[in-house]
């Protein structure tokens, strides 16, 4: 028997759940792209986007996914042969490093493994050893390992080393979920995409940048017409903001999501994600007691992101649970990414529970309850009390 009929819940770390308000905002005829209401709407979107990243500086909007924002940032930051220091705490950090290398940047990777955050002391040492490094790239929350990095501490390391490197941060997973303060933390470049905390379909990406980054970019020779942020930031003609036709319906969706974010407030949004994340952690802590095959990927809660949680159940239980919750209970959970080679048995031990964007207590508690149901159905031994531990966190948080 299946109990999956009813509203399906896609609990993967992007695309995230889209609010009906956002979906409905797109259900309309295309607007005039040459003048009028669309232009006014975009004029309002720009300052609101800056608020979400907590910056008073610049923003460029791209038509593309997170990978496009990676390339845009790289193109504007570097000339061929320039040096980059990339701090890697999982699959996505490696991806950004590889993109930079393929574009002709001289990339040095500092790898901190799959369970621990960036160590600022190692960043400082690497920068002291090479003052020619032009930028430090770091992932705020690596969606694969769900390691959360201390961005302000990386800025501290750059300054302590006497380096004038730019600080670029991938906030694709974390924006709108984990506290992020671009200007206060001294970040020069922030990248994000529409389909995660911003609750909009995949297809838009964003690069916020400091005045210092804008000045440096003027000599970067990796810029091409598509990635160059000069006119996206300050278009002479409306179409230059998007390098062509505006992504009209994504913009309607984004306008609505930014309204929803403003209505709830950033502090309240961060607090909601914090409580939901802690409820997930509490469930796994209880399930893992006496069952070492079950556990959270990141041991120290201080280093865990609040948009998504990477977990292990021991192979083949991770994949078996995912299949069960999708087919029997209407909840799709995330695959384990970058934790083991997909061709090996170990791969099937990992998965991820997303709690990013338009999610509330009953959704997260429901996802956890379906995981426990799957463990019962599949005879996977686990500690008792996971659901009540999660419910207790929600009860106290609310
Ligand atoms: C999702 C994600 C990406 C990739 O974004 P795409 O839209 O899939 O290209 C990169 N970095 C992080 C941290 C992400 O969460």
From TrEMBL:
GO biological process per UniProt: glycine biosynthetic process, by transamination of glyoxylate
Domain Aminotransferase class V: 51-352
Keyword hit for Transferase: yes
N6-(pyridoxal phosphate)lysine PTM positions: 196
Cofactor or coenzyme needed: pyridoxal 5'-phosphate
Keyword Ubl conjugation: no
Keyword vocabulary terms for this entry: Aminotransferase, Pyridoxal phosphate, Transferase
SUPFAM superfamilies documented for this protein: PLP-dependent transferases (SSF53383)
UniProt record similarity statement: Belongs to the class-V pyridoxal-phosphate-dependent aminotransferase family.
Protein name from the UniProt record: Aminotransferase class V-fold PLP-dependent enzyme
